[in-house]
Amino acid sequence: MNKGSDHIKKFTVRFKTFFNSIRKRIISRVSTDPILKGVLVLSSGTLISQILGIIFVPILTRLYTPAIYGTLAVFASLLSFLIVGGSFKYELTIPLPETDNDAEYLFILSFLIVCTITVILFLILVFWGDILAGILHFEFITPYYWLFCIGFFGSSVYQILTYWALRSKNYGTLTRTGITQGICGSISKIILGIFSFGSFGLICGEIIGRMVGIGTLGRTIFPRIRQLLPVLDFHKLKSLAQKYRKFPTYSLPAGLINNFASSAPTLLLSILFGFQIVGLYSLSYSMLVLPVSLVSSSIAQVYFGEISELFRQKSDKILPLYLKTTKELFMFGAPLILFAAIAFPFLFPIIFGSAWKDAGMFSLPLSILVISNFVVSSTDRLELYGYNHWELAWNISRTFFVLLGFFIAFQLKLSPVATILLYSSLMTIMYAICFILNIKAIKLVSQKIGNA
Questions:
Q1: pLDDT one-digit tens code per residue, 214-225
Q2: Distance between CA atoms of residues 264 and 259, nearest Å
Q3: What domain count does the chain have?
Q4: Which among 262, 280, 282, 319 has a CA at the least distance from the CA of 435?
Q5: Rg (CA), the chain
Q6: How far is CA 79 from CA 76, 233, 321, 329, in A?
Q7: Between these two residues, 260 and 424, which has the higher pLDDT value?
């Protein structure tokens, strides 16, 4: 008995020693790796949001038909396209200045542009909204013009606040607002769905989810802006706008073209195959992204914050960080995405109901696109390195190939699945080119730093 007891005690001591060793290694790694530390903070919130999403989506798919989901996908695509130009890309400049005062001025500049564009958007929709909807065959949107303006303003302001939080490395607040957005958006959609609000319920819930968190993120910056407004130096505001003119000159059109290329499949599928196919495609894509979305947005945000700091410090560690991050993204994302793509055709009817069984067929052709997008888009920062014109040229090329792919599919009368496979293949090639461009840009920046 004593020998057995001694063995148990020795095993317990060894286990505790091993466990403490692993724990110390993890703590040491997190404390010395700012990206990993930031990602863990942001990912903790994303994990909760994704778990809630897994719970809520099967409820939503039983409250809304694929066709109604298709209308939401089109609305969200159009709104996302508009938000890209919300502040003329000046929000990207907020983490860059060395002084907080300059960053505050850039925050004000971004906000003023959002207010101006919101008024212009309202006037356009009031006078020409019906004509535009008729041309694009999106007549279902006509009752929701006012939601466009509210969604545009709220989402754009939240976007500006996000970049201020990234400058401050306030990842905890971003985590909390992300959780709140997921909960409020989903619950709103469910409640409105129970009362049979149809497309309005989904669209309204989407906008609520996008806007929640503005007060939380603005808690620290809004008081500072109120103190600055009475003594605002408009000459300095104009000078900073001029200093960072590359962002509206190159990053704005690049962003608009990039978003159009991302939204084009949804819009073109609705024209070629109807809202039913769009709804199936949208659910398949969102669920395929789910396994990696836990870290994708978190890594993109943290990576931007860390790279911005290295850029300000004129460090030579930018390229190693880029290569390390993209490698880890691929090693993490590829197995998860491929496993999900294989399993979804069998799981979709069980989880989401029989009406959504065809959605799983899109997962395999979409998988190669999702992997390349996950790895490259999270770390694409050509505009930060000063190569905004490369970003613009790449986005123009990508848009051309998107339109070319759908034109070929239309001419050959391809099925929806074959159309998505062609689109995914072309986009994977373009993301490979983007990866090479980022490496080239970082090397050129490093050479300039070395020669300085």
A1: 988 888 889 999
A2: 8
A3: 2
A4: 319
A5: 24
A6: 5, 33, 33, 29
A7: 424
Separation of alpha carbons 239 and 302, rounded Å: 29
pLDDT, tens digit, 9 for 90 and up, residues 369-413: 999 999 998 888 887 778 888 888 898 899 999 999 999 999 999
- Within-domain flag for 88: yes
In which domain, by residue range, is 410 found?
266-452
Residues 149 and 196 in one domain: yes
Give pLDDT, residue 131.
84
Buried b (16+ CB within 10 A) or exposed e, 364-375: bbbbbbbbbbbb
Q: Are residues 285 and 238 in the same domain?
A: no
Place of tokens 């505009």: 383
DSSP 378: T
Q: Determine if the pTM surpasses 0.90.
A: no
Same structural domain, 100 and 54: yes
Given this model, what pLDDT does residue 19 score?
Answer: 40
- Which H or E element spans position 345? helix 318-352
Q: CB count, 10 Å around CB of 143? A: 11
